[in-house]
Amino acid sequence: MEKIKLVVVDDHPLFRQGVVDALSLEPDMTVIGQASGGEEALDLIQTLSPDIAVIDVNLPGLNGQQVAHRVVQAKLSTRVLLLTGYDDLEQALHAAIAGAAAYCAKEIGPRRLIQSIREIYKGKYVIADQVFSREELDEWIKSNMRDINRTYSEPGTPFHPLSKREMEVLSCVVRGMSNKEIAMLLGISHQTVKNHVTAILRKFGVEDRTQAVVYALKRGWVQLHDDDEQSV
Q1: Quick one: how many helices (H) and strands (E) in the chain?
Q2: In whole angstroms, what is the distance from residue 104 CA to residue 54 CA?
């Protein structure tokens, strides 16, 4: 029997090992690699050429959607299944647009995860608890796009609506820094920081910094306690 070759990517070792253990029990599957971050995941995929990569959306460095997008852009054969702790229609659409073959909530049980892997191994797509052909997925994306009412400022990268500088400011906000501290760190004026924060709130459709942080964390665009600069 030809086994489905998998890599598993998650920055929480206990969760990652649980997924690996569950998949390793299946007679038609073999886990050939593990990673904890987005850049490492890309290296692993390029080196090992797995059939399927099971990847957490919220990763340090590149997030899962960005990894999926890079894999598709590079025309790699690996199909990406994204796991998320925050399942909603907007992010499911972004995952599909990014090129993910599946988008599943972390709350799903091992059986459903394994079933989803087998479906996408056969060439199907599993999004929003539905199994699609490529044509059916395209139609689903088209019919739901009207529900996405935010303007994204970076064409071709629909994974967050912020510019590179705004992402730098947001990362500082996540770390609890004041506008004055952000201005000193980034070498820009206090007013410029205020302008960036205002733009972030407007693009996210939220009212304050706390809501902006929660919004970004839920979507895997930034991480708590990550001192590294986040960029796309």
Answers
A1: 10, 7
A2: 10
Instruction: Note the pLDDT tens digit of each residue in 23-34.
Output: 999 999 999 999
The answer to whether 45 and 66 have CB atoms below 8 angstroms apart is no
CA 50 – CA 79 distance, rounded (Å): 8
Please give the order of strands across the beta sheet that includes 130-132. 29-35, 4-9, 52-56, 79-84, 102-105, 125-127, 130-132
Unique residue bearing structure tokens 């733009």: 199
Q: What is the CA radius of gyration of the chain?
A: 18
pTM over 0.85: no
Contacts of 219 (CB under 8 A, 6+ apart): 57, 86, 91, 160
Final residue before a domain boundary, out of 146, 178, 199: 146
| Domain limits for position 181 | 164-218
